[in-house]
Amino acid sequence: MQYRAVFLALVATAALMPPVARAVPQYRAEVVDSRGGTSAADLNNRGEVVGYRYNYSQRGISTYVFRDGRLRLLDIPGLDVHGGIGINDHGAVTGWGGSSTPGDPGYAFLYRNGQLGDISGALGPNTAGETGTRGMAINNLGQAAGIANYQPFYFDGQASHALLRQGQRFEGEVADINAQGVVVGYERVPGPVTSSAAAFVARDGVATWLPTLGGTDSIAHGINDRGQIVGTSTLVPGSASFAPFLYSNGQITNLGSLSTLQGGSANDINERGWVVGHSRENSGLDAGFLYRNGTMLDLNGLLRTEDAALWNVVEATKINDRGQILAIAESLDDPRRMFSLLLSPVPEAQTWALMLAGLGVVGAVARRRRAAD
Q1: Model-level pTM?
Q2: Is residue 219 a part of any domain in this protein?
Q3: How many domains are contained in the chain?
Q4: d(CA 316, CA 265)
Q5: Average pLDDT per block of 10 residues along the chain, 373 residues long
Q6: Is 181 part of any domain?
Q7: What is the domain range of residue 136?
């Protein structure tokens, strides 16, 4: 009877909770950097966030890693100043770094297992400083991608190579790299008056443009290991109105909007095909969204009651395979202050796993007991 009571209690508890496959989770919010600011840059599958902040003791920018509710500054021997932008599941970090010597332009770095490497130096001297030369993304194989003097490149784990389109280097930005080493970003295309942006995907160092939603400008922000790409695109030539897109199996799809107004961007996609970004509301302001199973959801409506009373999520920038989301939010106590938040689903995936495992163990024990009787 004791095992039966425990088993029924677990079943009753599980019945009160929505099924994992169908339910939209609620999210609890953690402040990444209590100083405020939106410098949190990337999120890995261990729930670690990498970013950068001003280090008063060193009087310069330092990389931080946020994990399990704590933020720690990363000491990288060989760099006086550094800003982490990408992190993989092994904790390897890429970004920009240099010395505190005035005039030092620095370089794109990769820091893993206590070893520091320059992944942009082979592409020529840095004449663009930290804004034009930096590592942007890194996968679990240690392959990375970034820009050197505003020109996209990728690092294959041993050497760096410039990305080429039609045999030529080009100016632009890199956003992401997947497990197959496929890189996405955008090319800056010069025009007679202003330049435009063309989303690209690069395989084996060769970049090709992606189709748009009908306009002339597009930017690719994220790619998963299935090759699905997300970003933003204009809808008609000359328009300044952007819409979030998903590019999958050779087809580009407009993910829609949270309101009757167009405007927004898809910023990242995980292996389940969940997409995050921001969308225009009828108020004319932006809200962070989660897109899953064909539906776009306002993240503010998914926050726990206690968190919704504190924050207005205006953009979601990253999502990992556990469903955790890196977001930007304004404080409702002081809307002038912006913070980076780590949003975690409740109950989290591991909680469900433990509950289901518990049901299995109790069931097995009960069956053995009946067999013994």
Answers
A1: 0.87
A2: no
A3: 1
A4: 10
A5: 49 46 82 90 98 76 96 94 97 95 92 96 90 96 98 97 97 98 97 86 98 96 98 89 96 96 94 97 93 97 98 98 98 93 84 49 47 49
A6: yes
A7: 76-191
